[in-house]
User: Which sequence fits this backbone?
């Protein structure tokens, strides 16, 4: 079950020294501080993330990004997983991060609205390869630090997406820099420099998401690049802002305009783990569509058919509506637009009874029958729901005979309240490897099994070397 924590709000003028306190705390963390279930969760997210990277091998935009950086760099100390090109750590992190986020199939912390391991795995893997001889326990710790802080930053900056930022990207560079700092063995002062240098690179608006363009896929990679760059420059003695969170031009007062719940960042550190609250995504599309997809399945079970649908109204919270509520335009021929359309994904759920990787192929997103059904769908803002709540959706179907049927849910498939099992996650890895790389189970599964025993690995660079390709 998801951890319940009362929101603790503190005024920003009480935040003096916040960044330094956070970095001092994180610099003291050790692998032995991690609860057993948190370690297991991190390893499952590695299975999930390596899987979605494999699945993205043929995804639009990924070959172009890899090709561009391959032309610029012929060698380096880190590995691009698809193609096994060698590049500098920041650029390997960027390319791998773009692949990890390309399918929109990667993990998410629903309340914080952050996709995390698409940033953390590329950043930590590139850093570990460059450093050398990073064992599995140190790697897990770094990932746990990045993942925990990413969620907490997202919970603190609870309306980041509503203000137009892409929290995966904007907050990911900051959280990831602390994970890279852990791999480098930075003390609290080094961690603070890393966090400050990450703020200097933090960027990423949600406009590519709203416009349905391939730039959306770069966000996680750019955050991973920033995290790697910040950690290594801090290690080299470059100083960064010493008030990156609380300073007048820092994350909270400036980027977040003071709309922050500070207690969510520091409250219960090392006691209440937000890593337990992440979701594995069962559908390769924007998380804001997932509850409505589940309702599409329910309506199908209730006997509703596409042929009898006269109109559909889908009510969402305001931020979800802003993200996925625009009308579906098949003529745009955009996979990203389809991934960010509640109309398209609902139409597929009702028609096919499934939403999977094949749902977002170029031929399927323009299918005339689906496009016609999606045109009958109108999304609205549910004024009775909190603007930032990810979970709720209400679907009202009017049939051609005039009858009306309404279904609603606050349960998101894949969330801690409706979780995917370990077997489901491994099967997802295998399905992605088959779709993107053409690998059968016999070639894919051993790699997943190695990830589940990661704490025993003497050098995680082997993961980059042995990633099936």
Assistant:
């Amino acid at each position: 079950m998801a951890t319940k924590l009362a929101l603790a709000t503190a005024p920003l003028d009480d935040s003096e020294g916040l960044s330094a306190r956070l970095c001092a705390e994180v610099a003291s963390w050790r692998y032995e501080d991690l609860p057993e279930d948190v370690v297991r969760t991190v390893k499952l997210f590695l299975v999930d993330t390596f899987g979605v990277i494999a699945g993205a091998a043929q995804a639009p935009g990924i070959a172009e990004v890899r090709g561009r950086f391959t032309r610029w760099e012929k060698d380096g100390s880190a590995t691009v997983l698809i193609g096994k090109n060698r590049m500098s750590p920041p650029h390997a992190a960027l390319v791998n991060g773009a692949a990890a986020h390309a399918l929109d199939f990667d993990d998410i912390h629903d309340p914080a609205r952050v996709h995390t391991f698409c940033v953390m795995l590329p950043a930590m893997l590139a850093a570990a390869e460059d450093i050398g001889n990073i064992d599995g326990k140190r790697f897990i710790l770094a990932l746990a630090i990045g993942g925990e802080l990413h969620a907490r930053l997202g919970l603190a900056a609870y309306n980041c997406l509503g203000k137009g930022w892409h929290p995966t990207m904007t907050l990911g560079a900051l959280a990831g820099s602390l994970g890279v700092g852990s791999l480098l063995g930075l003390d609290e002062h080094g961690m603070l420099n890393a966090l400050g240098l990450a703020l200097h690179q933090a960027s990423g608006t949600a406009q590519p998401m709203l416009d349905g363009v391939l730039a959306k896929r770069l966000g996680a990679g750019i955050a991973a690049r920033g995290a790697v760059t910040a950690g290594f420059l801090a290690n080299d003695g470059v100083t960064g802002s010493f008030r990156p969170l609380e300073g007048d031009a820092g994350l909270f007062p400036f980027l977040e305009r003071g709309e922050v719940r500070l207690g969510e960042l520091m409250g219960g550190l090392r006691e209440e783990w937000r890593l337990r609250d992440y979701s594995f995504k069962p559908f390769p599309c924007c998380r804001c569509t997932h509850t409505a997809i589940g309702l599409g399945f329910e309506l199908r079970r209730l006997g509703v058919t596409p042929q009898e649908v006269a109109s559909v109204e889908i009510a969402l919270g305001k931020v979800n509506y802003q993200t996925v509520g625009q009308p579906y335009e098949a003529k745009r021929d955009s996979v990203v637009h389809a991934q960010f359309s509640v109309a398209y994904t609902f139409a597929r759920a009702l028609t096919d009874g499934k939403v999977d990787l094949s749902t977002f192929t170029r031929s399927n997103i323009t299918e005339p029958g689906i496009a016609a059904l999606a045109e009958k769908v109108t999304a609205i803002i549910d004024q009775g729901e909190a603007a930032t709540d990810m979970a709720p959706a209400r679907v009202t179907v009017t049939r051609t005979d005039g009858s009306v049927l309404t279904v609603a849910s606050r349960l998101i498939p894949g969330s801690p309240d409706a979780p995917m099992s370990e077997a489901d996650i491994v099967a997802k890895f295998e399905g992605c490897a088959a779709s993107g790389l053409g690998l059968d189970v016999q070639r894919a599964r051993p790699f997943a099994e190695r990830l589940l025993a990661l704490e025993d690995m003497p050098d995680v660079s082997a993961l980059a070397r042995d990633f099936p390709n």
Notes: Confidence is low (pLDDT under 50) at residues 1-11. The chain has 22 helices and six strands. The chain has two domains: 12-282+450-466, 287-409.
